[in-house]
Amino acid sequence: MRYISTRGGMSPRGFREILLEGLATDGGLAMPESYPRYEAPDLARLRKLKYRDLAFDILSRYIDDIPAADLKRLIDATYTAEVFGSDDITPLKTLEPGLHILQLSNGPTLAFKDVALQLLGNLFEYVLAENHGELNILGATSGDTGSAAEYAMRGKRGVRVFMLSPHGKMSPFQTAQMYSLTDPNIFNIAIKGVFDDCQDIVKQVSNDAEFKRRHHIGTVNSINWARVAAQIVYYFKGYFAATTLDTQQVSFAVPSGNFGNILAGHIARMMGLPIRKLILATNENNVLDEFFRTGRYRPRGSSEVHQTSSPSMDISKASNFERFVFDLTGRDAALLRTLWQSVDGGGEFRLADTPLLGKMPGFGFLSGTSTHADRIATIRSVYQRYGVMIDTHTADGVKVGLACREPGVPLICLETAQPVKFAEVIKDALGLEPECPANCRELAQLPQRAEVMGADAAAVKQYVHDHCVS
Ligand SMILES: *Cc1c(COP(=O)(O)O)cnc(C)c1O
What we know:
alpha/beta; 470 residues; 20 helices; 15% strand; six-stranded mixed β-sheet; binds pyridoxal-5'-phosphate
């Protein structure tokens, strides 16, 4: 499998060449040249597989420049009951016939990002060891992404993580999760400022090409292709768990921010999985709902971003969305470049001005917006009707999913985090403390450490330099 850029300006590359990169060399995003197809007899075969074997079957079509036996070993070491709580990895919980929750958040940080990042950690370590390379990951986080990246990379040879977070601004749970890590390759830097200050510092450091090169600086943001690929697997897993026949269709409801999770669903559908609708749910930051309802894509300014009670979906633009539009254009890189010229210049585009509007229905998307009041009401009604506690992000997905539900079509709502991560809102909604899974109970007792610094890129560079033994 070779990879091309959405903007058409990169000569095709292998998986290993794009694994450690963020953007493609021409500013676009890496995409597989084509999607492998599974036909009905293939689905019958896949249905019988355990998660690890299913993951290998799917991922080996996208990763063919790592020897199969090595890839199998990396996948087997990633998706274990020890790390994800059960051999199912992503168990399906049935609320009532035809209505299900696919549990994606049983990994170490209790959010769905673990499913992809745990594999990424093992892939990075493998490829770096073979190349005698090293990688210093520099990132900014307001919570979920940073902790999932740290838990994926802790103890990995050849990798260090320098994670900037806003001092005193994360939830106590997220702070404890990150700052209690004692692995010598994990560096938490608490910046006296807000999340935007952290992100600005990362940008400033990244703009210094010489510093970046000399210190082997990289990222693990949501545009990494391997993350998207790893997420395709659980759409298949969820489908098989909710159906008995390989001709049956299901719909998925997906709480969305950067469009990484639901992009994997789109790809599963392109690969032949019988998905009827992909139901995209946003919170008050509804740039994607606006697009799927009206055909207008208008990224917001950072001052327009609302701080909500489903904070991992608080986005101004959706960084993986370009990959979907590439498929929507029939992979017309020239048209995509034109559309993104206006997006990258701070503008917008409208499908009505292009030949694309008529193609949209073929991709099966529906969408909706969920507000704080909707989240509270949904958390309450799911708890009252089914005795199941869901988190705020999952509630956005359930709310919009139920609004789009069709009779006779099983609906699978993706659970993206566990309620304990957002305990305050759950207490408001239910008057109850969410349960703490075993692996987080002792978290509050552990000592915490972080380097506290001013919002100063030069000081962060010095710190990175001092702690990279090159
Ligand atoms: C990251 C995240 C999302 C959004 O996923 P995208 O891939 O960015 O669309 C939703 N819920 C939770 C809990 C998350 O951490």
